Every structure is written in structure tokens, then in C-alpha cells.
DNA sequence: CAATTTCCTGAAAACGATTCCAGACTGACC
DNA sequence: GGTCAGTCTGGAATCGTTTTCAGGAAATTG
């Protein structure tokens, strides 16, 4: 159906090799033949078959992106940034959503492995060992998590938590709850770690509420539990969970922020649109995606030349209406 | 690096052809060799190179998904459904975000064309002619738009608009504004068509407000214009636009729904979480994605056997708090 | 004008898989 | 035991590229 290099060669009256050269390294062929080839190619609407090229060059110009849940608005933002940056370098994106299932991750990666030059794993849920075991020599960059020996890009959660806790402390809060996300999530552990350190710095009491799914429903599920505990503020694993809390609080007529302040994490679009608008720790989503691609391309260039790189992107507390002075 | 079929053949002490058969058509080889091959394959962690296979079989088991903007929460939902259904048939997904740029569409498709068995175009912005011109014999299924001669899946906007207008009419509204989306969007034209028919049925007056970007900012941009016009209700091209309206109305202390009722379209997650919760026309996003994949696979099976199929998915008005009785 | 270099080109091999074809072996049957 | 059918296997061709290699033409040099 589609034109191949041979069709172009025939039409231009040259060999396939010349067509290849004319298109890939124009300086190596006579201007005249180059022009003939170019015209033939455009007449036939010829575009090289990247899969075939990949077979021989070992470079597919495809990048595999794996993430736990496209329905979480955080990820589309990152993916979009990845897309944009990848396209800039003529890379195409393979997308795989694992549905928060750690067991699905490695098989999915493996199935795609030969069709891509490597992977960007966004918030992978699989175990470190598992990832390492797979990685053979497939280039892998990890986003929102650190797994030696892979290069990674993470948000500076510790600093974000410090800002959040500083803000709450200034408002008079002394007891704060944390609604934890998935146990398998490195971000969750990282945020908790940062939070613990921040609360101890400020000498505040931290109450941890069970692990929930990183969704609105997950937040709603523990809202009553949080409300029943002796805290004046709650920090959620992410914005979706925070919104679940807000929703349930409203349903029960628990005033936010008068009775309890709520802080989210990620700063998804939603956060600014609900009422009360959500105070949250913004993550540089675009930067994470973009940097991930850059690290990935570096990785491809100097094949295992040097030490793994860890980039940390800044976080920024966005104060909106869901936080206020502590009651009592 | 990675094991090839030859490595497996060597380890198992058989030829490459036998390895291929043992794995693809187990009944054609002796149980003993099959077992040897299977063990060798799993020892080496062998997975066939799909690109190489695609070269010869002409089937890549990849599906290309093209959409205008991943940042619009509508699309991730659809993509997720596509993923899930595609995976069920062992298909992987190539994703391309065109950034609402009609001119980017065809080149992007073309670049991917050889690596996929065909495309699912979500709300493509390119012109009909352009799409047809490209399509050569690449299987294409169109979502959220109808373009002969491609199979397509669309939402029943007309019915959705009928429901919305019926609802508003019952609440006493007689003059309603429509905030139009991108001019290049078929959905926009379709919704407008449905809306015109519905308002004329109910003998209501329709005022159309300029075309805006399908984003929150787009909605905010025309909110004042809408407020200044003599309407008691407004229907937005989609939920994001509706949210932009809500936001701006709140900023200006224009009461919703007391002074003006607002209706969205799509029913994205956000819609139920804002205050007032948005009345909107829900679209069967998952069904659209799923059906799209099914149509696509059908298309591959009986190669151009029969007439193009157009599926229409139901819409459902979700009444929330942003609509109420007309004032005056 | 001959010798040497440079430039350009085509043939052939390779990438990793699948499939067709033909041959080897097994067993059944006469 | 010989023939035949049937089962299983390996070799070779193939897909669409890229790349290496070598050779011919043109250009340069003495």
C-alpha cells in the first residue's frame, strides 16, 4: 500500500541506498540526484518506516511512558509536557496506564520494551528490586520516585511540606492529620517523611490516617475519621483526596476552614476551582515531564557513561481559601 | 543486549523457525521441543520484537491515538477507556497530543502511520478533505466527529441538548445563551445544531456568544458578555468553559443559579465538585473509547468489507445546583 | 597524459522476526 | 520390507530500512 524506499528508488531511477542517503545525509549525494529523490519521495508521499529503521539502527525514536492512572489529573499534565518535549526531538510517545496495579507494570514494560528506546516511569508502583531486575540495559528514567540506579526527577516534597506546615503553624494550628495515599507510592512515603520532619521542627503533633486510594472517593472515605480526631488541620496525600475531604465535610456541614483547614498536594486544575478554593502545594508538573525527557535523551547519548542524575524540582505552597486560623 | 529468537534457538538446540512455531502455534511442534523452547525462552527472558514481527506480518498490534489536548479532562477519560479495551486485545497505544493545532494533525499521523495498524482520531480538528486525503488505506476510526467514509463514534448531542433545554424550559427560562467552542471542532457545530433545533422546538430564543478556546479561561473571557445579554441561562460548549463562566460570575457576584443558570457539557470529574455543582450533559466517555477500539478492530478484520459504521452513544442530563428557576 | 585522490553510486549484508517449501523421520498398512 | 501418509523440522526468502564496501567516474595533481 504505502510507498517504500524501493518505490522511490524506482521512480527516481536510483538505488535504494541513494534514496536513503539523499534523505538522511543530503551532503553525501550530488545535488541533482538529491533533488530527483526528493521529488520522487514527495510525489509518492514516502515516509520511512521507523520500525524497519529501528531494527537496524537500534534506535526507534519512541519513548515509553508508564503511569498508574490517567484519570488522576496530575498525570495528563506530566504526559503533555513529555509529549511536547519529546516531539521537539522527534520522539513519539507510547503510553501505558497500569491502573494502579503494581503487578501489571513490569509485564507491560516488557511487552513494549523492543519498540521503544527506553522508558519514562511516572510514579511506578512496582518494587525497587523488580524494576532493577527488569531493567537489563533498557534505559529508564523514573519520575516522582527515586530508584537506584536510575536517573530520576522528583518534586521537593520536603520543602513543600515545610512550607505547608509553616503556613499552618503561623495560623495557630498545632495538631494536624495526614491522609496517606497508596502504600506502594514512593511519593506518599516521601511526603510523609517530609511532613514528619516539618512537624517535628515546629513541634507539632501529627496524626496519620490510614492509606487510601489517591482519589476523591479515597478522601471521602476517611473524612469522618479525620473530623473525629482532635486536629484543626489536615494535609492530604494529593488534591483529589483533599477534594474528597472537602466534599464530605461540606455534606456534614463541617466548616472549612473555620472548623478544620485542608491542604492538598499537586495543584491540579480542580484545586483552584472548587469552593472553598484549595490551599495546596504546587508541583512543577511541566518541568518534571520536560526534565524527564532531557534526562532520558542524555541517558541514550553517553551510554552508561556516568553516575545517575537526580533532579529535584521546586514546590510552591499556593494559599487559597481552604486554610485559616485554627479554632480554639 | 536483549535476547533474540536466535539466542533462544541456540539454547534450545533447534532452529529459529521452530522457536517461532513453538511460541506462536504450539500445536504444530512436538511437545518435547515445545517445552525445550519454552524453557529456553523464559531462561533468556525472551520476548519477540514486535516491530520486527510487524515488518513481515504487516500487523503491529499498535493503535495510534490522536487528540487535541490532554489537558482537557475529557480526553484522559476516553484514552483510559481506549487503553483498557486495547490491552484486552493485546494492542498497545501510541499517543499524540496536537495542542489544538489543526495543522499539526496530519503530519503527526503520517509520522506514526507505519508503526501502527491504524488510528483512533479523537475530535480531530483537521478538515475533512485533509483527513480523507491522508487516509490512503490506513484504517481510521473517528471519535466525537463524523467524517465520511470513516467509521465513527459520536455522542448524541442533539438529545443531550434536548434534555438540557427541556430542563431549562421547565424552569421557566425562555432566553438562553450558547458559548461556542473552537470553530474547528465538529462537536461544537454538532452541539450548536442540536441546541438550535431544541430551542426552536421549545420556542425559545437562542443567543450565540463568540467562539472561545475550550478552556476555563475561554469561558471566563465571555462571562461578562453573557451576563450583559438578556438571558437567564447559558449553555457552554463544555464543562471547562462552564467553569470559567461560574468562576467569573462568582467574582462579579452574579448569583448562580438565581440570576443566571449554567449548563455544561461532558460531565468531567470537576463538574460535580465545584460550588455550585454544575448541571451538565454527561457523555459516555468510557463507552466512546471502548466502542472506538471495537470498531477499529472490526475495521482491521474484514478489510474494507462493508459500509462505514456510525455509532451514537447516549447522553444524559445530570441536574446539579447550577440551574434553577428563571428570575423575573 | 598518467597517476592519484575525491566524490558519488549500487550491491549486498544485516536487523529480528514469520512463513513457505521441501526434506527427514515416524508409523501404519499392505 | 516397501510404500504411503502424516508429522515435524530446518533452510531460505521476505519485510523496509541502514550501512559497509568496493568500484567507476570525475577532478586534481605532477
From TrEMBL, chains A, B:
Gene3D superfamilies tied to this protein: 3.40.50.2300, lambda repressor-like DNA-binding domains
InterPro entries assigned to the protein according to its UniProt record, in alphabetical order: HTH_LacI, LacI/GalR-like_sensor, Lambda_DNA-bd_dom_sf, Peripla_BP_I
SMART domains: HTH_LACI
Keyword annotations of the record: DNA-binding, Repressor, Transcription, Transcription regulation
Pfam families: LacI, Peripla_BP_3
Extent of the signal sequence: none
A single GO molecular function term of this UniProt record: DNA-binding transcription factor activity
PROSITE patterns: HTH_LACI_1, HTH_LACI_2
All copies of domain HTH lacI-type, residue ranges: 3-57
Protein name: LacI family transcriptional regulator
Annotated source species: Actinoplanes lutulentus
Amino acid at each position: 500500500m504505502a510507498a517504500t524506499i524501493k518505490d522511490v528508488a524506482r521512480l527516481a531511477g536510483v538505488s535504494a541506498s541513494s534514496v536513503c542517503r539523499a534523505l538522511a545525509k543530503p551532503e553525501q549525494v550530488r545535488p541533482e540526484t538529491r533533488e530527483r529523490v526528493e521529488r520522487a519521495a514527495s510525489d509518492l508521499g514516502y515516509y520511512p518506516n521507523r520500525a524497519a529503521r529501528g531494527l537496524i539502527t537500534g534506535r526507534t525514536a519512541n519513548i515509553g511512558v508508564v503511569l498508574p492512572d490517567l484519570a488522576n489529573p496530575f498525570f495528563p499534565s506530566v504526559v503533555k509536557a513529555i509529549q511536547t518535549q519529546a516531539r521537539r526531538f522527534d520522539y513519539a510517545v507510547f503510553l501505558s496506564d497500569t491502573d494502579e496495579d503494581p503487578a501489571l507494570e513490569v509485564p507491560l514494560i516488557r511487552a513494549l520494551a523492543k519498540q521503544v528506546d527506553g522508558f519514562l516511569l511516572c510514579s511506578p508502583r512496582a518494587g525497587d528490586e523488580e524494576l532493577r531486575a527488569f531493567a537489563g540495559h533498557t534505559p529508564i528514567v523514573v519520575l516522582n520516585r527515586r530508584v537506584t540506579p536510575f536517573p530520576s526527577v522528583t518534586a521537593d516534597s520536603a520543602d513543600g511540606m515545610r512550607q505547608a506546615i509553616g503556613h499552618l503553624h503561623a495560623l495557630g494550628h498545632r495538631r494536624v492529620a495526614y491522609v496517606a495515599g497508596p502504600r506502594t507510592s514512593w511519593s506518599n512515603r516521601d511526603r510523609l517523611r517530609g511532613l514528619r520532619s516539618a512537624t517535628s521542627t515546629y513541634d507539632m503533633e501529627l496524626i496519620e490516617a490510614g492509606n487510601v486510594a489517591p482519589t476523591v472517593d479515597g478522601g471521602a472515605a476517611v473524612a469522618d475519621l479525620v473530623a473525629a480526631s482532635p486536629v484543626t488541620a489536615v494535609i492530604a496525600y494529593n488534591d483529589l483526596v483533599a477534594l474528597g475531604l472537602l466534599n464530605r465535610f461540606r455534606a456534614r456541614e463541617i466548616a472549612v476552614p473555620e472548623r478544620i483547614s485542608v491542604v492538598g498536594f499537586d495543584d491540579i486544575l480542580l484545586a483552584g476551582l472548587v469552593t472553598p478554593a484549595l490551599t495546596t502545594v504546587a508541583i512543577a508538573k511541566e518541568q518534571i515531564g520536560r526534565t524527564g525527557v532531557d534526562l532520558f535523551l542524555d541517558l541514550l547519548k553517553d551510554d552508561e557513561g556516568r553516575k545517575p542524575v537526580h533532579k529535584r524540582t521546586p514546590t510552591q505552597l499556593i494559599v487559597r481559601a481552604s486554610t485559616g486560623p485554627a479554632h480554639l
